[in-house]
Every structure is written in structure tokens, then in C-alpha cells.
Amino acid sequence: MKLCRYGRNGFEKPGVIDAQGQLRDLSGVISNIDQDTISSKGLTKLRKIRPESLPLVRGNPRFGVPYTGISKFVAIGLNYVDHAHEAGLQIPAEPVVFMKATTCISGPNDDIQQPRSSTKLDYEVEIAIVIGTRAEYVSEDEALDHVAGYTIVNDVSERAFQLQSSQWDKGKGCDTFGPIGPWLVTTDEITNPQVLDVWLDVNGERRQSSNTKNMIFPCAKLVSYVSNYMTLLAGDIITTGTPAGVALGMKPTQAWLKPGDVVTLGIKGLGEQRQKVIPYTGK
């Protein structure tokens, strides 16, 4: 299933994408897509519904974050060999874990807001794992049994903020730095998350192109590893790292994002995102 939420920010309705790629309204069946919905029990219930029997949504409504109830936004750094090389860093011996603030979360096509004093705004296309059932000290063999599905994250980064100290969080958690979606694609459709093409363009220029087979630590390893240090709950998300092609790695000139730029990105089977960069305007 491809689950989603659509409509104005704060007023999203639940939806599902049918076999023809059309948006169908789920609000007559459930009121929201949340932790209960993406649990094993909740997904079993939804799989009994034929999307074609649901009302068709006309027009091109905004997509929101595909589900609610994210208690932890976990991120993995340097998880592609080519990205570690372009950053001038060693290949990690074990996953590099940091956190993105949940206040950075935004819809897949919402604007990216450049923060005050930002000079090195960057992009990172990533496949993200959505937890469906509680995971605590799980083995790698059992790890994917705890996964509800997968989605796309643009791990937007402000490199000047990020590299001011050994801790990356403040350069990763600014408002709008976590576009998620457009869909949560369940594991019955994505049976192997390590075979998916990923790409990202800036203003129509291809910047990133790779495949999830090139991840150093695959999704099963990441779920198992992180569950040894924190209990993962339904709705928690792990974004898994990006391939080469980010602005940080460009030589001799780093093409940082600036207001007016348009970033488009996608992963095979998971849909696409599109964001416009805007300046900070205040509240």
C-alpha cells in the first residue's frame, strides 16, 4: 500500500494511492494515519480495503507528512562509500547515528526555509525506514519484521552550522529541514529496500544518482543497531544516509542552495518530492 495524508497543513486527510497512481480518500474508513494505523494490526485491516472502492480525490492537493506520531527522527551519516570519500572522511566501522529535531519535519513538497545566518545550505536524498512495531534489542534477522514501510527524506543540512562542532544536530534540525513523503509504502510492496534507484536534481541538473544497494549498512542492520541503544516505537523514522553528489563534496566550487532554487528528488517505488528554497521571513 501507498499511504498518504493530503490537504492544508494541519488539516490533512488520510489517503491511499491506487494501482493507477490516483489518490483515493481514506477518511471514510479511518480518521488519520498514525501509530495505530501502521501497526501490524492496523495494516492488516487496511489491506482488506480495495482502493478502487474509495472516493477519487480530484485536482492536485498538497501532500503532508504521510503519517503522524513521530517520537524520534533518527538519522545515519556517511552510509555510502562515495559520500564519505567526497566529504573527506573515513569509512565508518559502525553506523554514525545522530538525531533530527521533530520540529524540522515538513511535507514532501513544502518550501525549504533558509535559516538566518545560513551560508552553506545543502541537500541529501535518502530512503527512510518507518517503524511499525516496538523494537528493542532486535537481531538483524528479525529487524525488518518491525518495519511498517519506507518513505523518502530530504536530509536538508546547513553545513556551516553542522561543522561548528563534533555534534551535527544543530545543522540538521532547523525548521523545514526534514521533508518526508509523499507516501509511506508498506513492506508488502517494498520487499527488498536494498535495490532501489535514488536521485536528486537542483534546478533540473542531476546532482545525485545511486542505488540503495550501495549503502554500507543496510536497513536491517540499521534497525537492529539503533534498537540496541534506544527503544524504537511505532512511527519512529530512521533516515539512512545519502550517496555522493551533495554540495559539500563539490570541487573546486561548492554550489550551495540559495533562495529560488528548486530541489526535486525521488526513489524508485517511493515517489518524488519537490521543494523550493525560500529565505527566512520570520513569524
Task: Write structural notes for this entry.
This protein is mainly beta. It has 2 domains: 2-53, no CATH class; 73-279, Fumarylacetoacetase-like, C-terminal domain (Fumarylacetoacetate hydrolase, domain 2). Helix content is 11%, strand content 29%. It is built from 5 helices and 18 strands. It has helices at 40-46, 81-86, 140-143, 159-162, 219-227, and strands at 2-6, 13-17, 23-25, 73-77, 96-99, 105-106, 112-114, 121-122, 125-131, 147-154, 157-158, 178-179, 184-186, 197-202, 205-211, 237-239, 262-267, 271-279. The chain has a 9-stranded mixed beta sheet, covered by helices on one side. β2 (13-17) and β3 form a beta hairpin. It is globular, with a radius of gyration of 18 Å. The mean pLDDT is 96.
Question: What is the compact description of this entry?
Answer:
This protein is mainly β and 283 residues long.
Number of strands: 18
The CATH superfamily of the largest domain bears the name: Fumarylacetoacetase-like, C-terminal domain
The major pleated sheet works out as:
9 strands, mixed
Look up the CATH topology of the largest domain.
Answer: Fumarylacetoacetate hydrolase, domain 2
For the biggest β-sheet, the strand order reads 3-2-1-13-10-9-16-4-5
* Strand-pairing-aware structural class: mainly beta
Counting H and I runs of at least 4 residues, what is the number of helices? 5
How big is the Rg?
A: 18 Å
Overall 3D geometry? globular
Strand percentage lies at: 25-35%
Tell me the helix content.
10-25%
Q: What's the average pLDDT? A: 96
Order of helices and strands: EEEHEHEEEEEHEEHEEEEHEEE
CATH hierarchy, class of the largest domain: Alpha Beta
CATH architecture call of the largest domain: Alpha-Beta Complex
- Kindly give the count of domains: 2
